[in-house]
Amino acid sequence: MADDSFIVREGVEQMLAAAEGVEIVESCGDLPSLEAAVERHSPDVVITDIRMPPGESDEGVRFAAALRIDRPEIGVVVLSHYAEPHYVLRLFDEGSDGRAYLLKERIHDRGQLVTAIEAVAAGSASIDPKVVDVLIEARTRAERSMLAELTPREMEVLRAIAEGKSNSAIAEELVLTKRAVEKHINAIFLKLGFAYGPDAANVSKRVKAALMLLAEADLHPEAG
């Protein structure tokens, strides 16, 4: 894992120390150290901050993009203070498989972090629900938003899809039958212009489709 804050690194290490099936093989404070550690250990997953030395800009996101090309089998969990759409959309720009975005303020629950680690290790995706809300709200404000065509229930289902939930999980959360969820998903993707084919049950592809839609807002907030 990599974070320029020693306190954050220690906190995450202690949090994961008792997590079954998770072992941190090295902890790094900057991008060059992270790059060297990945070469040494070939880990299943990298946990990284967005901003690190030497540039203190978007090193974590750029490293995730580089891994997508050079080491696509390695999953990446980005831990960030920022819920800004710009960072999230860049992380998922080349696809959502094996990528997760969590806010640091919400990882006090070890289970949430472990779930994200397991998801990216399996090639799936995970997005902090608060970040999903920020993306959807920003997209909804965009002129001529297609999301305006969705019913309140369809919007709830879309949020759950973007969070990476399965149809069964959505049905349980919203107290619906699985068949009703499938009908809502079919309606959502028809309204948004996405084909709903046999592979739509793949969680990563569903997340990618939702993010592709959100990206149409052409969101470029300043990286404060």
Can you describe what's shown?
This protein has 2 domains: 6-127, Response regulator (Rossmann fold, 3-Layer(aba) Sandwich); 132-215, Arc Repressor Mutant, subunit A (Orthogonal Bundle), CATH 1.10.10.10. It is 51% helix and 8% strand. The chain has 10 helices and 4 strands, in the order H-H-E-H-E-H-E-H-E-H-H-H-H-H. Strands 1-2-3-4 form a 4-stranded parallel sheet, sandwiched between helices. The longest helix is centred in the last third of the chain and has 15 residues, at 178-192. The relative contact order is 0.12.
CATH fold description of the largest domain: Rossmann fold
Largest β sheet strand count, sense and barrel closure: 4 strands, parallel
Query: Given the C-alpha coordinates, what overall shape results?
Result: globular
| Class from helix and strand fractions | alpha/beta
Residues in helix, %:
40-55%
Gyration radius over CA: 18 Å
Please indicate the percent range of residues in DSSP E strands (runs of 2 or more): 5-15%
Mean pLDDT: 83
Text of the CATH class of the largest domain: Alpha Beta
The tally of domains stands at: 2
Query: Topology as H/E string?
Result: HHEHEHEHEHHHHH
Query: Would you identify the CATH H-level superfamily of the largest domain?
Result: Response regulator
**Separation of termini?**
24 Å
In the predicted model, the low-confidence regions spanning at least 5 consecutive residues are 217-224
What is the architecture of the largest domain at the second tier of CATH? Answer: 3-Layer(aba) Sandwich
* Strand order in the sheet with the most strands: 1-2-3-4
Number of helices: 10
User: What's the count of strands?
Assistant: 4
